[in-house]
């Protein structure tokens, strides 16, 4: 038998791909402490925390508007299965966190879907889980988006987005002009 045949089977590792976007990322460099070059190994019993406090958070966002600890991700194995997943918890008392269209207040947590958009403030993070077999650790691979993630994916996530009425004129146009929208009869057009 060759050494290849005697070698143990390699375990695949669960990898959490996180793509970050902020409209002012080029001027403010809030992602300068994140390593976008390589995958990073995180032990299963660790909680991956994101925020501006470098002593408490593994992933630092250099922005005074970000909470000291904004949110955490916990790797776990689902009960009675070999399947693993992630739980996301909002740790900010001031800022709500949105996972797809689920709003999380302080200390609220949900299972992280296999593909979702995480939003808080002006931050958009596309999270994609690549399944693996290892239960000892997982990996994170960080990416930087050049364009807004929400526009690329067409998923409404931010509460600031307003629906556009059928006639194609946004109510924000009227409000910016100091006028309120008025209802017009079809026959008047």
UniProtKB/TrEMBL annotation:
It holds the Pfam family FHA. GO terms for cellular component: cytoplasm. SUPFAM superfamilies: SMAD/FHA domain (SSF49879). It is found in: Cytoplasm. It comes from the Eukaryota. One of its GO terms (biological process) is innate immune response. InterPro entries: FHA_dom, SMAD_FHA_dom_sf, TIFA. Keywords: Cytoplasm, Immunity, Innate immunity. Residues 49-121 form the FHA domain. PANTHER family: TRAF-INTERACTING PROTEIN WITH FHA DOMAIN-CONTAINING PROTEIN A (PTHR31266:SF2), TRAF-INTERACTING PROTEIN WITH FHA DOMAIN-CONTAINING PROTEIN A FAMILY MEMBER (PTHR31266). Belongs to the TIFA family. This is TRAF-interacting protein with FHA domain-containing protein A.
């Amino acid at each position: 038998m060759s050494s290849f045949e005697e070698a143990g089977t390699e375990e695949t590792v669960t990898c959490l791909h996180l793509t970050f976007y902020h409209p002012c990322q080029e001027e403010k460099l809030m992602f300068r402490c994140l390593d976008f070059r390589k995958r990073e190994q995180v032990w299963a019993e660790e909680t991956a925390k994101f925020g501006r406090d470098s002593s408490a958070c593994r992933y630092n966002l250099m922005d005074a508007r970000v909470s000291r600890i904004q949110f955490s991700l916990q790797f776990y194995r689902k009960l009675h299965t070999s399947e693993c997943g992630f739980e996301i918890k909002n740790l900010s008392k001031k800022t709500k966190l949105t996972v797809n269209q689920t709003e999380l207040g302080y200390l609220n947590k949900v299972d992280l879907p296999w593909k979702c958009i995480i939003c808080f403030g002006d931050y958009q993070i596309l999270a994609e889980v690549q399944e693996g077999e290892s239960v000892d650790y997982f990996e994170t691979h960080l990416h930087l988006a050049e364009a807004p993630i929400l526009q690329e994916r067409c998923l409404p996530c931010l509460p600031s987005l307003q629906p556009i009425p059928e006639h194609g004129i946004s109510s924000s146009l009227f409000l910016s002009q100091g006028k309120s929208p008025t209802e017009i009869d079809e026959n008047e057009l």
